[in-house]
Amino acid sequence: MTLRSTILSVSAAEMSVCGNEELLPIGFTSEELTRLDEIGTYQDATSPPPAGVRNPGEFEPSTGVMVRWPLGLPYDFLVDVSNNSELWVICSSSQQASASSALSSAGVNMSNTDFIIGPTNSIWVRDYGPWFIVLADGTQGIFDYDYNRPRPDDDLIPQVIGDQWGIPVYISDIVHTGGNYMSGGLGEAMSTNLVYDENSNPDSWVDQQMEDYLGITQYTTFEDPQSTYIDHIDCWSKMLSPDRIMVLQVPPSSPDYAALEAVADLIAASPSPYGHPWNVFRVFSSGTEGYVNGLLHNDTYYMPVWNTGNDSPAEVAFTEALPGYTVTPIYYGEFINTDALHCRSRNVIDQYMLQVLHTPVDTLQSAYAVNITAFIQPNPANTLASASVFYRVDSGSFTEVAMTPSGSNNYSADIPAEPDGSFVEYYIRAEDSSGRVSAHPQYAPGTWFNHYTVSAAGVSSSGVSPVKTVMLGTNPFSSSLVFSGEQGTSFSVYDGTGRMVYNSVAGEDGLMQWTPDASTASGVYFAKFVLGSSVSTSRAVLLR
Predict the structure, then answer these.
(1) 59 backbone dihedrals φ, ψ, rounded to 5°
(2) Whole-angstrom Cα distance, residue 208 to residue 469?
(3) Which helix (H) or strand (E) holds 99?
(4) 432 and which of 151, 382, 497, 533 could share a cystine (Cβ 3.0–4.6 Å)?
């Protein structure tokens, strides 16, 4: 551990809801500050998972919510979760009976409540709990790391869960914490620079660990914009989808105002996993409310509230950012702006998830049929029953087009050509043999849609003139994808899931070439070109 970690303030004591435990703080106790050298000594690293691993976002399908007993959360949150999902409670064997009695007395739906038996040191399951990953074959794994606190029982909880649930656990030597991490689900993730500060290895080593164990190829880190003790990204932002993010907004008089505005502007100018800039939403706080420190569980956002006049506008902000979702306010007297509901809970990602991964087409399309491609993969225990694209023109009725397989779990369908000026909305829906239904966007048609406008002027996601390029060679291609363009053109290649697999910049000769290695699967790939403010894309098929 570096000096940075030792300056975290020691928090005041908080009692558990049941009153039988004085809870450890989210920061360090004074005694723990004398044991920082223990961090990283409680477990040994394993080999990374096989290539092709993916770390889902918080917004992806979950079967339940995980908390720790004794509690640092209000019972009404647990009641709501248990009435709509599965509630998983981590507790020791000696506490299970009393926990079950207390939860039942509080109105928790015990038929939807299960226990994970294991000792813990603290309530911060967000920080030490398991990070679920999807392996290349569609099965689930768990990523574990060295928890950045000298708390041995907490640090081993991911392995306890893996053993009890029969899920393989992959352990890295990286020092990390769950509150300082957000995944976009497509190989992109965000943290503050705390992750670099707490690891003695070079930043490049940290980035490589994130790629090897989580499949993160675009790891974006920020100087923390808040003048607090914790430096966790979940204190000031919340990913809502692969291209939507909520960023906290404070009054101009706040010492954090300038830094938060700067980081919001920076994110808004950065490419999302879909390739276009992030859609940045803002939620106002006086500085004492941490509205982004809530839990996005399936189609519900559990938003912490403080019983102030800012609560209602915050609820509106999340409702506008998440149309069709339910925003449920949760009050608890121990919540503070840097430690609320998100810090104390964690989603259990669906172990048998039906994955539907798709990069939306550019928002301007030529007056031809538009090909829609998606990566659709059920868990190996299930089979795909159906996959379709639903589209409508100028807010008319939706038309269904069945998708056909194109290899390597890729499926495609064409939306027919529409007249110039048409506004087309679409979503993808898939169902597997277990009855699971997944969509893109998630929860469509009850939420927003992917969309594009037909323009005879050409295709450009930025709404300006497209980058001029010429494909050299054949499409489909078998060895190299080659384009000719202008010097300085940024050339990126994305697979069918939206993961960037290659990036370069055209030199003086204007040539741009991607030669995939032998392990690269056949399928549909998308080339993206950026030159100044102009953007264009091209679709290509790799056939081996």
Answers:
(1) -80, 0
(2) 33
(3) helix 96-105
(4) 382
**In 3D, which of 143, 140, 314 has the Cα closest to residue 213?**
143
- Per the rule left: phi > 0, alpha: psi between -120 and 50, beta: everything else, 69 is beta
Q: What is the CATH number of domain 470-542?
A: 2.60.40.10
70 in Cβ contact with 17 (< 8 Å): yes
Tell me how far CA of residue 299 lies from CA of 61, 89, 184, 326, 431, in angstroms.
9, 22, 17, 6, 18
Confirm if 227 and 256 have CB atoms less than 8 A apart.
yes
Average pLDDT over the chain reads 93
C-alpha 120/C-alpha 137 separation (Å) is 32
Output the six-digit token pair for 71: 């509690």
Least confident of 12-21, 73-82, 125-134, 353-362: 12-21
CA distance 51 to 129: 23
Q: Which amino acid is at 274?
A: Y
CATH topology of 3-349 equal to that of 470-542? no
CATH superfamily of 355-454: Immunoglobulins (2.60.40.10)
Contacts of 363 (CB under 8 A, 6+ apart): 276, 451, 452, 453, 461, 463
Taking each continuous run of H as one helix and of E as one strand, the counts in the chain are: 10, 35
At 268, which helix (H) or strand (E)? Answer: helix 257-268
Please confirm whether the linkage preceding 380 is cis (ω < 30° from 0). no
Dihedrals phi, psi of 27, to nearest 5 degrees: -85, -150
* 417 token code pair: 């050509």
Token pair for 375: 């990566």
Phi-psi region of 369 (alpha: psi -120 to 50; beta: other; left: phi over 0): beta
pLDDT (tens digit, 9 = 90+) per residue, 51-96?
Answer: 999 999 999 999 999 999 999 999 999 999 999 999 999 999 999 9
Domain spans, the chain: 3-349, 355-454, 470-542
Strand partners of residue 191: 221
Cross-strand bridge partners of residue 364 = 453
- Residues sharing a CB contact under 8 Å with residue 109, sequence separation 6 or more, in sequence order: 79, 82, 83, 87
What topology does CATH give the domain 3-349? L-arginine/glycine Amidinotransferase; Chain A (3.75.10)
Q: Are 525 and 496 in contact (CB under 8 A)?
A: yes
Answer positive or negative: Cα dihedral of 439, 440, 445, 447. Answer: positive
Give the span between the Cα atoms of 134 and 501, in whole angstroms.
18
Residues 525, 452: Cα–Cα separation, whole Å = 20
Q: What pLDDT is recorded for position 497?
A: 64
- The model's pLDDT over 392-419, given as tens digits with 9 standing for 90+, comes to 999 999 999 999 998 889 999 999 999 9
pTM for this prediction: 0.85
45: amino acid identity, one letter: A
Phi, psi of 165 (to 5 degrees): -100, -5
Radius of gyration of the chain (CA): 24
